[in-house]
C-alpha cells in the first residue's frame, strides 16, 4: 500500500519542518478563512499534526489563532470600506465569523474601534487597521 502523500510523520521537527508547517498552515488559512468552522484544531487536523505541534510552528510569531483572527479582520475591514451598504453582520459572516459579537470583539481588540467606526472612517480604518494589525503581531 502506497503512503498517503498528504500525511507526513514528524517524529521530531527541526526548524525547517516547522517553517514548512507554518507555510502550509498560512496557505490553508488564506484558502479557508471564510469558513466559520476553521479554527486551530481544524487546521491541525488538516495538516495531520497535533495542536501543540502546530503551536510550535508559530512560537516566534503570534499564535495560529491570532493569525487566523487577523486574516478575517483584515478582509472584513476591506469589504466594509468597499461595500458600505452591506450590513456589517453579513460582512462578518462572509469572512468566517460565527457571530457578529466575535467580530465586534476582535475589532475592539485589534483595531481599538467599533465595526461602525471601521466602516465609516474608511481612510482612518484602512490605513490604521493595517498599522494596528501589524503592531499587534
From TrEMBL:
User: Which Pfam family is an annotated match for this chain, by its short name?
Assistant: HTH_18
What does the record give under GO molecular function? Answer: DNA-binding transcription factor activity; sequence-specific DNA binding
Please name the InterPro entries in this protein's record.
AraC_XylS_family_regulators (IPR050204), Homeodomain-like_sf (IPR009057), HTH_AraC (IPR018060)
Lineage, top-rank taxon, reads Bacteria
Keywords assigned by UniProt?
A: DNA-binding, Transcription, Transcription regulation
All copies of domain HTH araC/xylS-type, residue ranges: 23-121
**Could you tell me what this protein is called?**
DNA-binding transcriptional activator FeaR
Amino acid at each position: 500500500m502506497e503512503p498517503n502523500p498528504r500525511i507526513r510523520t514528524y517524529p521530531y521537527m527541526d526548524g525547517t519542518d516547522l517553517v514548512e508547517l507554518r507555510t502550509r498552515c498560512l496557505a490553508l488559512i488564506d484558502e479557508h478563512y471564510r469558513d466559520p468552522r476553521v479554527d486551530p484544531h481544524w487546521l491541525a487536523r488538516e495538516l495531520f499534526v497535533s495542536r501543540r505541534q502546530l503551536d510550535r510552528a508559530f512560537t516566534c510569531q503570534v499564535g495560529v489563532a491570532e493569525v487566523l483572527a487577523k486574516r478575517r479582520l483584515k478582509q472584513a475591514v476591506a469589504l466594509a470600506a468597499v461595500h458600505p451598504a452591506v450590513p456589517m453582520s453579513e460582512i462578518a459572516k462572509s469572512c468566517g465569523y460565527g457571530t457578529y459579537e466575535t467580530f465586534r470583539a476582535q475589532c475592539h481588540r485589534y483595531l481599538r474601534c467599533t465595526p461602525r467606526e471601521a466602516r465609516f472612517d474608511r481612510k482612518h480604518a484602512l490605513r490604521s487597521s493595517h498599522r494596528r494589525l501589524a503592531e499587534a503581531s
